[in-house]
Design brief:
eight-stranded mixed β-sheet; alpha/beta; two-stranded antiparallel ribbon
Length: about 190
């Protein structure tokens, strides 16, 4: 089993365990630190969706920082089971929901049942066209004033109607904070 550490909030320093899986690469600590500096350290009242949950680093980090609701979607059965086990160990309760399933097929059901989210995290497997396939679903998943976080194998100006407002790079990972509308405030 692999581990990743929660870096902030109520569960700071807690370790999450997850199995090896093809394409699974947890968001590094320093990238998560930057992301949550951009979003604000306290996510109280915000509703978050981690559409390609993997290790759960982003979703658990959001829950640790007070998000009112976090939904994590993962297709790989062993990885989803590890997410459920981590949620039990953290006593996350009803604030955190794990959905076993395909991100594209789960999205319409999530939007119908949970409504639109304040923050959506997208860290799909690279070089498989996931971002292009998810882009048309964003209007039903993400509130107009919501934040979209995207990790990709290349730099992105935007995704659908969401434009990059902040970005960075760590090794081969390009990470982006996007908001709806036109902006040239890329950092």
């Amino acid at each position: 089993m692999n581990t990743v550490r929660i870096i902030g909030g109520a569960w700071k320093r807690r370790m999450l365990r997850f199995p090896d899986a093809l394409g699974l690469r947890p968001t590094p600590d320093r990238v998560r630190e930057t992301l949550f500096n951009w979003l604000g350290q306290d996510l109280s009242g915000r509703r978050c969706l981690d559409l390609f949950a993997g290790s759960g680093a982003l979703g658990f980090e959001a829950a640790s920082r007070g998000a009112a609701r976090v939904v994590m979607v993962e297709q790989a059965p062993a990885v989803a089971a590890a997410l459920e086990n981590n949620a039990r160990q953290l006593a996350a309760g009803e604030r955190l929901r794990i959905v076993r399933g395909d991100a594209l097929k789960s999205a319409p059901c999530l939007a119908a049942g949970d409504g639109r989210f304040d923050v959506v995290f997208l860290d799909p497997p690279y070089r498989q066209g996931w971002l292009e396939r998810v882009a048309p679903l964003l209007p039903m998943l993400l509130a107009d004033d919501g934040d979209l976080y995207v990790e990709a194998e290349c730099s992105l100006d935007g995704l659908g109607a969401w434009r990059t407002v902040r970005s960075g790079r760590a090794g081969q990972v390009f990470y982006h904070l996007m908001q709806k509308g036109d902006t040239d405030d890329t950092q």
